Amino acid sequence: MTLYLNLAELISSRIEQGLYGPGERLPSVRTLSNEHGVSLTTVQQAYRVLEYSGLAIPRPKSGYFVPTDRRVAPLPQMGRPVLRPVDISQWDMVQELMRFDQSTDIVQLGCGMPDISVPTLKPLLTAMSRISRSAESTGLQYNHLQGVLALREQIARLSIDSGCRLSAADIIVTSGCQEALAIAIRAICAPGDIVAVASPSYYGMMQILKAVGLKALEIPTDPVTGINLEALEMAMEQWPIKAIQLTANCNNPLGYIMPDDRKLKLIRMAQR
């Protein structure tokens, strides 16, 4: 974790613990810089993170303050979908919403996109620009179906830190998660098969299921702990489920991170 994120997390924990009350002025940028031995820029980036999180508000020539009214939106209730396989319907409505993607008046919350205006991305943009100038025309040519070999080799090296033993041949580089999901689904499912999906689910996954001709079996999902494992287990006993689709970490659209003990239980269920 970078310095500014560490600092932002520290200040956030102090706010949550009540060390800085509503409306109270937070330490100045210079004070935090001296206290933690970091640059002024690092502190400013930390405060920007807190500002985005709604934990700090800037006041011109006065510094940063804890909001006086920190309203926390209530969590959505767990849905009650029909527990039977169904065809993907109402896709026209989704396509209609996607037509607004190019509108500058709409803030898109359905997909994760970085803010390319933040200073932390400047080194990446600089590196990309440098590589594009030095790589000549290789980026415009066809490459291996599994992706650039050098990239796959580097991913294999990095995977060692996660306890994985992978070679470049084990890795496929895709153009985003949508293609990766489509390849995985097509590899294990045939038209007419049933896929258990967390409800609500990522709309792009519904597009894939519809394209392959699969049926979706919605499983109710808690906004804190994730997919209801009890309901999933009952569904697995009743229907020949071929695959289970969910996002355990930073879920889209609910945003939860599934607890590790429930992840392990889910893996055991899938291995039966």
Automatic annotation (TrEMBL):
InterPro entries (alphabetical): Aminotransferase_I/II_large, HTH_trans_reg/aminotransferase, PyrdxlP-dep_Trfase, PyrdxlP-dep_Trfase_major, PyrdxlP-dep_Trfase_small, Tscrpt_reg_HTH_GntR, WH-like_DNA-bd_sf, WH_DNA-bd_sf
PROSITE patterns according to UniProt: HTH_GNTR
Record bears the keyword Isomerase: no
Family: In the C-terminal section; belongs to the class-I pyridoxal-phosphate-dependent aminotransferase family.
Listed name of the protein: Aminotransferase class I/II-fold pyridoxal phosphate-dependent enzyme
Keywords from the UniProt entry: Aminotransferase, DNA-binding, Pyridoxal phosphate, Transcription, Transcription regulation, Transferase
GO molecular function: DNA binding; DNA-binding transcription factor activity; pyridoxal phosphate binding; transaminase activity
Native species: Pseudomonas syringae
Residues annotated as domain HTH gntR-type: 1-69
